[in-house]
Structures are given as C-alpha cells and as structure tokens.
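For reproducibility, we list the full input for the zinc ion complex.
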Amino acid sequence: MDEAAEANLPPTSNQKASTPASLATVSDLTMSPESSPESSPESSPGSSPGSRAAEIGLDDQAAMRLALAEAESAPDHGDVPVGAVVVTDGQVIASGHNERERRNDPTAHAEILALRGAAAVLGTWRLDATTLVVTLEPCAMCAGALVAARVGRLVFGALDPKAGACGSRYQICADPRLNHEVSVSSGVLAGEAEALLTNFFARRR
Ligand SMILES: [Zn+2]
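The corresponding predicted structure, in tokenized form, follows.
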C-alpha cells in the first residue's frame, strides 16, 4: 500500500466538521435533490460554463451518484474506490474509476481516466466547458491535470486531508501563479464516498 492509497482513507466523523468553509460554494448550500434546476436559469451565482451545464441537466448530487457508482466497481480489481464523471451540457460524456492496480499504472487515477475519455469525446484537450465530478478530493497529479485541461469546474465529495490538492494540502485549483483556476465545490455526498473508502480498507485488514 503506498502513500496515495493510504491518503485515500479519510478520518470519519470529525472530518466533515473541519471542512473549510472557503471550499463551499453557493451551490453547495442551495443545491438539493428536489430543486428544479430549470426553474431559475438566471439566478446562478457562478458564470462558468460547467456551472451552467450542471444546472440545465444533471445537478451535482445526481452526477456524484454516478461517480459513486463508478467508484464501487474499483474494488472488483483490487483498486481503491474512487470514481469520476465528466459533465458537459448537463450530460455525462466520460467516466472512470481508479485502475492503478488493474493497469499497473501510477497515473490511472479516476480523474485522469475520465479526463482522457472526455478529451477523446470532445476532440480537444481544452475542457473548459466541462465539470469534473469525483468522489474524493483530487491529488496533486490530478489537480494539475485539471488545470492543464482548463477544466471549468470541479465538484468533489470527501476531503483527503493527507494528500488532497484542492484545499487540504495544496490549493492547486486556485493558485494565481498558475495560468488557470478551476472553480471548486466540495462536500457533495461526502459521507457516501467516505463510507466506500472506509469499508474498502476495513475489509483489507
Ligand atoms: Zn489523483
């Protein structure tokens, strides 16, 4: 077990309480499963293409449920359960889950695989019109890939206090020294993502 897998195991009960308020966005506070995204197209606090896309189709929670379903299949091949989907115009265009063990590839994180799929579908490396939704806070590599791909928006579930690079350890998605900033929403269905990870590591012991 290397550092990335260990880092994927978040503390449980006290973690949500320590979620930095600065990571939350208005959509975290207002989005609910019952809300009708079509009802207020002009009231969006965010103006990024990804944010708009999320409102006219899948909302953050619905997209996260698909990412969680991706994560659930990773343990089938011995991988830590992390899943991701890429959303544009309210639709999922690509998805992925952690396949590091399956592929013997240190870069085969869920986010990387989903970004590659999205780029192939869209025919461009520039993914500024997309939202990446992932169950766990991205690591430094994946956060760097989000910046490199010019991803418009990131939505993640559980914090990764050991290796998270979108607020926990590093702030790669909002570093003014870099040439692109990614809008970040965190904590979406975080408890479910944490439960997947906790159960995975508990079974391994
Ligand atoms: Zn990663």
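Residues 109, 111, 138-139, 141-142 surround zinc ion (CB under 6 Å). The first strand starts at residue 83 and ends at 88. Both points were considered when choosing residues for closer inspection.
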